[in-house]
Specification:
The complex is a heterodimer of chains A (about 600) and B (about 400).
Chain A: H1 2-5, H2 37-75, H3 77-94, E1 103-104, E2 110-122, H4 129-142, H5 148-155, E3 162-168, H6 170-179, E4 184-193, H7 201-204, E5 206-207, E6 213-215, H8 216-220, H9 222-227, E7 232-233, H10 238-254, E8 259-266, E9 272-278, H11 291-294, E10 303-304, H12 310-319, E11 327-328, E12 334-336, E13 339-341, E14 351-352, H13 353-359, H14 362-372, H15 374-383, H16 408-415, E15 421-422, H17 424-435, E16 439-440, E17 457-458, H18 462-478, E18 492-502, E19 505-519, E20 526-533, H19 551-565, H20 581-587
Parallel strand pairs in A: 1-7
Antiparallel strand pairs in A: 1-2, 2-3, 2-4, 5-6, 8-9, 8-20, 10-15, 11-14, 12-13, 16-17, 18-19, 19-20
Chain B: H1 2-7, H2 36-43, H3 46-73, H4 80-100, H5 104-128, E1 130-132, E2 135-141, E3 144-146, H6 148-169, H7 175-192, H8 196-212, H9 217-237, H10 239-249, H11 257-269, H12 293-323, H13 330-354, H14 372-388
Antiparallel strand pairs in B: 1-2, 2-3
Helix pairs in contact in B: 3-4, 3-12, 4-14, 5-6, 6-7, 6-8, 6-13, 6-14, 7-8, 8-13, 9-10, 11-12, 12-13, 13-14
Chain lengths: ~600, ~400
């Protein structure tokens, strides 16, 4: 290796002493400088040495390769397999199968649960071309909903991971396996199934393809559902929910309404026993439902509720100290600032408070609110939660459209449910407070385990609450809500037919018809709010589209069906034990239920 | 050629008979016959030829294994790659043997001329070339896409050997600088294509030759340091290099489909392999017939063939070095060293890539991988190596 390190000799200049080339003397003009034989041999020796050194390095490198070969092929194939599977493992680790807790109704019936399935995906880089063609021909035959064009694009995309179809049944998985096409692979997945179906589509909500909650309770409790082992117990009663869904569906269909909503609330706890919004959707359906179907009218939609709001207005007037026997002039339309408030089928005379409720007088209600004043009105509505977003365990919560600025005219129109847009759930919980003894309890979709522990805020006195029960009963006995009466359940309520807002004005022939009811009015247990969006006059309504002809009778049918399930015993006795005689006299209630069976 | 023969009798001084001419025919292939072919017959290293031919045969067997599945994947005739590779191999054998006929002087001359020609063609590639997979490296000649840069590698090795040797021979001739300049020109052209792998290997071979030519150790270290810095810069600045290296350092971070399948192939192969035609993973490896043919060898023929192939490459390098012992011609040493480095580096990078020893780098396995340009260029390099390893009287040095 001596030559290896030998330095290249310095170039010598021609003419220096002793510098003679073997060929003989070189003339000074010769520009070629040839090294002597020793000089020539030196680089050659270095070259040889270094070439041998290079061979040594190459031999070492080839030895490394050989050792690697022996290592992965003979000695430790498992480690090599481990390296090979690292990528797959990473993918699995990144997307663990996410287990979700069940959602059950108040009686433990399953409303949402996980089902283990497999997803079909393709590693398109691995599929030979003819096999791709075979897959494009065969897969749509197995899954008719597959779009062949999209499938072709996907399979030729050269991507490592393309979903073909989610949630295969074991039978479908076998059919795909039988095709024997390489590159078609399965990943384990969880499919959320909803035994409750359409009836609960807005309440329970939906999950996306990754099994994350995308709407409804699934979204609101997503974290809880993915971390808890316990099922989520709802306040919903599946039986009541189904009946409510059916009755509302029939009603919407019969009155050719655009949609509707129905709520059943437990007045003592705020528990939502049933909540339906139509149109609805099939939660397990592939593809996303239309916005219209996804929209929860009961909690997200805000509407001018119309005359049903008079329940709140009247309670406010009583609570402000206006005696029940007071009269308000409704002899002529009320004019204020260029606006005119008039009555539908007006009596054109001063009306008492029970009469204002019974005849649903706008003028009377407006005069009551006027006497109460804007400040008191706003405070009262705020205490009922009507000026803030509805409180419920859903991501779909509507925010009221509050008059701003709140002028005197607003005070007057809000009295009969115009100028303030709220969700049906707002109204239902407010009415619930009015008749439950005067305590506002925020609504909830979760089962209340300890009924005694429910806390609320008092909004009206117990006495005024009793008066309100009598007044609402009066509406059903003698007012616009007659068709809601159900023998034995002493239904009380209030109709409301609000002209729908269109742009800045109101539509002539399009209304929101609603009926809010409580039963039994002797000792209220449940509130029902039934809303129909734009019901049409049909045979039997004599050309009317007002709530008394559609929402009220539907509410009656609903109560007749759900009351027995809710454990409300029918009673055919006089209300005398619940209302004192003077109240019955003052309001003008009948003292006996009409003869007849328990159901209509 | 007659001119060549008469001026440089490759072997045998003094001449015993006038070997040329018709009267030499009866004495064909005797040591007395000094015709080019006869000389070649006696001076060529048949052991080296045999080793190279064995490699060619292995390549043929492996293209039979990997070709049909690759052809099916791109939807062409099943035997598409096999048929073409057979033609390439035949042409390669002719080219290899033809090249091995060259004497040192003619090797140098043809090498220099060929290099200038390839340089010219390379300059035309951006104009005439067709873009495949994002790089413009190919010039289509009918159904055959020629990749001139493949041929530039061995020719550049010859030119560099000449320049370095001349730099030693003639003091006033700045051979090192000229070689460096040529490297700059060639490297620039390759980077523009872009073909970093080729640039890398050309630079490495240049570095080896510079080293063999007696570069002082100080500069050797500088060169190594510069090489490392260059590689690190490439890692920092060139996104796909960065991606490849990161993927190698942390296999779990990205999807390394080819490597994953390649490792599976070796593992499935075991000692004797699954048997010819029994490979399954080859149909999942997109580059089974080119960059990952070593994996196919592993799966179907097992450890034995893999070791044999690796051993053959090393044997060729050692044998060519052995044959050069006592050589006094610096050019021959440098050229042999460069060609050995070229072939060995390419083989090592290919094998180490498929074995996940280094980041994946698209590099063909000489004589084994499918590809016309690659096979012919390897034949050129091997032929040159054969020419260099022929026995020469020492007086033959130019």
């Amino acid at each position: 290796m001596n030559a290896f390190f030998r330095k290249r000799a310095r170039p010598r200049l021609v003419g220096q002493g002793g510098d003679r080339l073997p060929g003989g003397p070189v003339s000074p003009g010769d520009r070629r400088q040839l090294p002597g034989p020793e000089e020539r041999a030196r680089p050659v020796a270095v070259g040889h040495a270094r070439l041998r050194f290079m061979c040594l390095v190459l031999a070492t490198l080839f030895a490394v390769v050989s050792w690697r070969l022996v290592d992965i092929m003979i000695l430790a194939p498992e480690t090599a397999r481990g390296t090979a599977n690292a990528a797959m493992a990473r993918q699995m680790a990144e997307e663990p199968v996410r287990k979700r807790s069940d959602i059950v109704d108040r009686n433990g019936l399953v409303l949402a649960t996980d089902l283990p399935t497999v997803n079909l995906f393709a590693d398109t880089r691995g599929i030979p071309r003819p096999e791709i063609e075979r897959a494009i021909a065969a897969l749509p035959a197995l899954f008719p909903e597959l779009d062949p064009e999209k499938l072709r694009r996907d399979l030729y995309s050269q991507r490592a991971f393309v979903y073909i179809r989610h949630h295969l049944t074991p039978f479908e998985q076998k059919r795909v396996n039988d095709l024997g096409i390489p590159g078609l692979e399965f990943e384990t997945a969880e499919k959320r199934v909803y035994p409750g179906g359409r009836a609960l589509s807005h309440v329970v909500g939906t999950t996306n393809l990754d099994n994350r909650g995308s709407s409804g309770l699934e979204n609101y409790f997503d974290r809880w559902l993915t971390t808890s082992d316990e099922p989520l117990v709802l306040s919903i009663d599946l039986r009541v929910q189904h009946i409510t869904h059916r009755v509302l569906s029939e009603s919407v269909k019969h009155f050719r309404a655009q949609g509707g909503s129905a709520l059943v609330l437990d007045v003592a706890t705020g528990e939502v026993m049933a909540m339906v919004s139509l149109p609805d959707f099939e939660p397990e359906r592939n593809g996303s439902p239309a916005d219209k179907e996804r929209f929860n009218r009961a909690t997200l939609g805000v509407y001018e509720m119309g005359s049903v709001f008079k329940v709140v207005n009247t309670a406010m007037a009583l609570e402000s100290g206006i005696p029940l026997g007071s009269y308000f002039d409704a002899s002529a339309p009320l004019r204020i600032g260029g606006h005119s408030i008039s009555d539908y089928k007006g009596k054109n005379r001063p009306l008492s408070i029970p009469e204002i409720m019974m005849y649903s007088s706008n003028i009377g209600s407006a005069r009551m609110a006027s006497r109460v004043g804007t400040t008191y009105q706003r405070e009262f509505l705020r205490n009922l939660g009507l000026l803030e977003p509805v409180r419920i365990e859903l991501p779909e919560r509507g925010t009221p459209l509050v008059p701003n600025p709140w002028r005197e005219i607003s005070t007057l129109t809000v009295a009969f449910g115009h100028g303030l847009s709220i969700t049906p759930l707002h109204l239902a919980s407010a009415v619930s407070a009015v008749i439950n003894g005067g305590v506002f309890i925020p609504p909830t979709l979760l089962k209340v385990q300890d009924r005694q522990a429910v806390q609320g805020t008092r909004v009206i006195s117990e006495r005024n609450s009793v008066i309100m029960r009598a007044l609402m009963r009066l509406v059903v006995e003698a007012g616009s809500g007659k068709s809601a009466a159900v023998n034995g359940y002493y239904v009380g309520g209030k109709t409301g037919t609000a002209d729908k807002q269109v742009g800045r004005g109101y539509a002539r022939n399009s209304v929101l018809a609603s009926f809010v009811a409580g039963f039994p009015m002797t000792a209220p247990r449940y509130v029902v709010l039934f809303t129909l969006d734009d019901p049409q006059p049909v045979q039997g309504t004599w050309g009317y589209r007002t709530a008394g002809w559609n929402a009220a009778p539907s509410t009656g049918r609903l109560i007749a069906e759900i009351a027995p399930l809710l454990g409300v015993a029918p009673s055919y006795f006089s209300p005398s034990g619940f209302f004192d005689e003077s109240l019955i006299q003052e309001v003008g209630l009948k003292t006996l239920e009409p003869e007849g069976g328990p159901a209509r | 050629m007659s001119d060549l023969r008469s001026r440089t009798p490759a072997y045998g001084t003094p001449r015993f008979v006038s070997g040329s001419g018709p009267n030499a025919a009866p004495a064909m292939f005797t040591r007395l016959d000094t015709s080019v072919v006869s000389n070649w017959r006696w001076t060529i290293d048949w052991v080296l030829v045999t080793a190279m031919m064995v490699l060619v045969v292995f390549g043929f067997i492996l293209i039979l294994a990997a070709g049909p599945s690759a052809a099916r994947r791109i939807n062409v005739d099943t035997m598409h790659f096999v048929n073409r590779q057979i033609l390439f191999i035949l042409a390669a054998i002719v080219l290899m043997m033809g090249t091995s006929l060259l004497s040192l002087k003619w090797l140098r001359r043809m090498g220099a001329l060929g290099f200038l020609g390839v340089l010219g063609v390379l300059a035309l590639v951006p104009v005439l070339g067709s873009e495949i997979k994002g790089s413009t490296r190919w010039i289509s000649l009918g159904s055959f896409a020629l990749q001139p840069s493949e041929f530039a590698k061995p020719l550049f090795a010859i030119v560099c050997a000449w320049l370095f040797a001349a730099g030693k021979e003639y003091r006033r001739f700045p051979g090192d600088l000229v070689a460096l300049g040529l490297l700059g020109v060639l490297g620039g052209m390759l980077i523009l294509q872009p073909d970093f792998g080729m640039t890398m290997i050309v630079s490495a071979v240049f570095g080896v030759q510079f080293f063999l030519a007696g570069l002082s150790l100080f500069w050797v270290f500088c060169l190594v340091a510069a090489g490392c810095a260059g590689a690190y810069l490439a890692y920092l600045l060139i996104p796909h290099v960065n991606h490849r290296v990161n993927a190698f350092l942390d296999p779990a971070s990205t999807d390394q489909y080819q490597i994953t399948q390649s490792m599976r192939a070796f593992t499935e192969g075991g000692f004797l392999g699954r048997g010819p035609g029994e490979g399954r993973i080859k149909s999942l490896l997109p580059d089974a017939h080119t960059d990952f043919i070593y994996s196919v060898a592993g799966e179907e023929f097992g450890l034995l063939l893999c070791l044999l192939i690796a051993g053959l490459f090393l044997f060729i390098a050692l044998r060519a070095t052995w044959r050069l012992r006592g050589e006094r011609d610096l050019f021959a040493i440098l050229a042999t060293g460069g060609l050995i480095a070229l072939i060995s580096f390419q083989a090592l990078i290919n094998m180490a890539s498929s074995l996940s020893l280094i980041p994946t780098k698209g590099m063909t396995l000489p004589f084994i991988s499918y590809g016309g340009s690659s096979t012919l260029a390897t034949a050129l390099a091997m032929g040159m190596l054969l020419a260099l390893s022929r026995h020469r009287p020492h007086g033959d040095s130019p």
